[in-house]
Amino acid sequence: xxxxxLALDSRPLTPVPAVPEKPTRPPTVPAPPAPVPPAPAAVESxxxxxxxxxxxxxxxxxxxxxxxxxxxxxxxxxxxVGAEPTGPALPPTPEELAVIRAVLAAVRxxxxxxxxxxxxxxFLRHPELRAMFPAAMDEQRELLFRAFEQCVRHADDPxxxxxxxxxxxxxxxxxxxxxxxxxxxxxxLVQALARFGGAVWxxxxxxxxxxxxALVSRLLVEGLDEARSAPxxxxxxxxxxxxxxxxxxxxxxxxxxAYPFRAGQWAAVETPWWPRVWRPYSxxxxxxxxxxxxxxxxxxxxxxxxxxxxxxxxPGDVLRLGAAEGGMTVxxxxxxxxxxxxxxxxxxPVVALVEEVAAHGAAGRRVExxxxxxxxxxxxxxxxxxxxxxxxxxxxxxxxxxxxxxGAGGALSGQLPEVVARYAPWHGYTACxxxxxxxVRAGAxxxxxxxxxxxxxxxxxxx
Length: 463
Prior knowledge:
Layout: H1 62-66, H2 94-107, H3 111-125, H4 138-153, H5 158-172, H6 179-196, H7 203-226, E1 234-245, E2 248-255, E3 266-270, E4 278-282, E5 293-298, H8 304-312, E6 318-321, E7 337-343, H9 347-360, E8 367-373, H10 382-391, E9 395-401, E10 412-413, H11 416-422, E11 429-434, H12 437-449, E12 457-458
Parallel strand pairs: 7-8, 7-11, 8-9, 9-10, 11-12
Antiparallel strand pairs: 1-2, 1-6, 2-5, 3-4, 3-6
């Protein structure tokens, strides 16, 4: 059987690819995309969230006790707040004023409810404004109605009305108030008066009230604008805290920048423990070269700010100060004699006035100081005043005790106004009164009975 040879192909062989090794890890498989949840419906909450009842602004607990380098942010007012008052605002006519007084009489018995309704309307329509107010609103309701009463009382005297409202407008700046806020408040107040005005409220009453409130808004805006050149507030560090008595403390403050003021003036003070609660305190010394300020504070029952300053404040704490206010200052060019009545911690501005007179020179004037307290322990600045009197023959200091026989210590006995009246007449003197409201009222009345003109009796609190 014949055999057949196979012919071999002379072409080169193609290399066989290598077989990959068995993988030791499973292949990476990309995960499927996560399902995208449907977008929630765009619902705008009626109230903005508040971190605590006392929260007042972005990042607050007072921006970590005022560690913020920038100024406190003021609330924007484009959408939620009414437009700034424009155009002339005329005072109400006598007929309109009679109608307004009838509305005031109708609202007075339910004033607290009416003012609560006003605030409810403001916060419902403009919740961003809630941060301007303290947590507790009872005092705010009382202050608002009292201010409305004063506006009605001075409505027929534009100069007096301006004198009352301009300082209020200046003070509103430290709360972050903008001119447009007044228009919103004006509208809410009209609706509150309409609800509680009873049978006297009609179209005529509404027109009259709107005219008065337009004038009030205009004057408040003017006061607000007057304060634009100064800071809304100053931060002041407590550098010394001395307990002068069980319920009285002397605080030395260092402002964060130059703080202009005159002896006899006062400033509103706010503490970090009670945000948006301001209380007025007079300066206890004249301006000093080192720029430090002194406050003499007495803790009063239920006094939030005073108790915090006396019992809680310590060196290193930071307070806020409003701009200096008050007209109980000395005209050094006039050279009139001064009669100063200081009761309790009200002796602070009196000492400041004496220090300023000493610094400028008495120029032939006499200064008579009556320093009143219940007991001798309350005369904590008597030694300082007597040292000033020893160096300045134009100064006479007479301590007065109302509940203690002070004859042995050289003090006079009796109520301060009555003791001052014993030394009358006070012709050619200008009187400066500072202390508890009851003492200032009684002292002003006693001096007027002694023949002192009302324009010569000065004080910086309503009496």
